[in-house]
Amino acid sequence: MPIWHLQISGFLGDNVAGNCQVMGKIRDQRNHTRQGWKCVESMGYDIERFVGYVNEGLLCSICRDVLEDPLQAPCEHAFCTACIHGWLVHHSNCPEDRQVIDVSVLRPLYRYMKNDLNRLQLHCKNREYGCEMVCSLESIDRHERECEYSQIPCSNAGCTVQIERRNLDGHLAVCEYRSRECPNGCGYTILSAEDTQHNCVAELRTELELLRSEMICRVEEAKHEMESRLDSQRRHMVQKESVLQNEIEELKNPLPYVRGQFNIVTPSLEELLYCSELILAFQSQMSRVMSDVRSLMAAERQHRQELEQAELEKRELMELLRGLQKDCRLSTAEGSRKTANFRPLARLESAKRKPREVTVI
């Protein structure tokens, strides 16, 4: 059975008195552990902040406070992350059952234990300053970040006062380290009480010197930038001038240029003429081939018609032969046999006299 169930069965009493005794034992054990464990800076949530009973299975086995950012060992003992990491710096075993463990085998808490932990109700850490908020452990961090009773430092430089968040605006309005402009109208920002006796004329002169030096720097930067641009434009113009001079020299002697261009174009024209002749010859050959193909297709159609006609005549002859055989079987008398032989032979002779012409290609 998991340790979680054993702890529940061992510490959930049937009456309030039993629960109080358990809480007293846990508190004593926590105080004893804290006296001997000083190397961990950030540990769990103080159990005294929680409302109602807290099961021992949700307590860190090292600091004995309620688990904060919990991890679980293979032996199912749970610890705060900071506590177990600090423990494993000097030890290599579980602080409860002494089984060998290291950081790599630590795993997150079981989901059902994590859900039970998140549902615990506790007071805000600013309860001593007047905050009466009680919320779940899951949302306590969000509340404490926005709590109006939390102590925050003054935002003015040099001020070391810790003030409640709700009173910060009032403090900033009267803080002696607040920044404000000189009442004499020089525009100087007063940051401390010593600055109230400043020399307005000296400050104005200093400001004027700063502005003058800043203006001089800007003018020098603009001057250097313009000089660099002019140099690049000058180099570009020189290059363009050389290109134009070359083109002018070429235009002064057009004949060699034209002759050179003509010599370049002439081979291309000859190739084009040769290609056109090849195309014309190919077209004539294609026309002849197409005419031959059409002739062959006409002859093929005629041949098919003749074959169909011959097939029809063949079927007629076969019908005549079947009729002849039938008549021969049915004749029993000699006189009737002569009559029967005469009629099919006459039909056969008439069929033979039909003209048939078959053309074979």
From TrEMBL:
<protein>
    <recommendedName>
        <fullName>RING-type domain-containing protein</fullName>
    </recommendedName>
</protein>
<dbReference type="Pfam" id="PF02176">
    <property type="entry name" value="zf-TRAF"/>
</dbReference>
<keyword id="KW-0863">Zinc-finger</keyword>
<keyword id="KW-0862">Zinc</keyword>
<dbReference type="InterPro" id="IPR001293">
    <property type="entry name" value="Znf_TRAF"/>
</dbReference>
<feature type="zinc finger region" description="TRAF-type">
    <location>
        <begin position="143"/>
        <end position="186"/>
    </location>
</feature>
<feature type="domain" description="TRAF-type">
    <location>
        <begin position="143"/>
        <end position="186"/>
    </location>
</feature>
<feature type="domain" description="RING-type">
    <location>
        <begin position="60"/>
        <end position="98"/>
    </location>
</feature>
<dbReference type="InterPro" id="IPR001841">
    <property type="entry name" value="Znf_RING"/>
</dbReference>
<dbReference type="GO" id="GO:0008270">
    <property type="term" value="F:zinc ion binding"/>
</dbReference>
<keyword id="KW-0175">Coiled coil</keyword>
<dbReference type="Pfam" id="PF13923">
    <property type="entry name" value="zf-C3HC4_2"/>
</dbReference>
<dbReference type="GO" id="GO:0043122">
    <property type="term" value="P:regulation of canonical NF-kappaB signal transduction"/>
</dbReference>
<keyword id="KW-0479">Metal-binding</keyword>
<feature type="coiled-coil region">
    <location>
        <begin position="293"/>
        <end position="327"/>
    </location>
</feature>
<dbReference type="InterPro" id="IPR013083">
    <property type="entry name" value="Znf_RING/FYVE/PHD"/>
</dbReference>
<dbReference type="InterPro" id="IPR017907">
    <property type="entry name" value="Znf_RING_CS"/>
</dbReference>
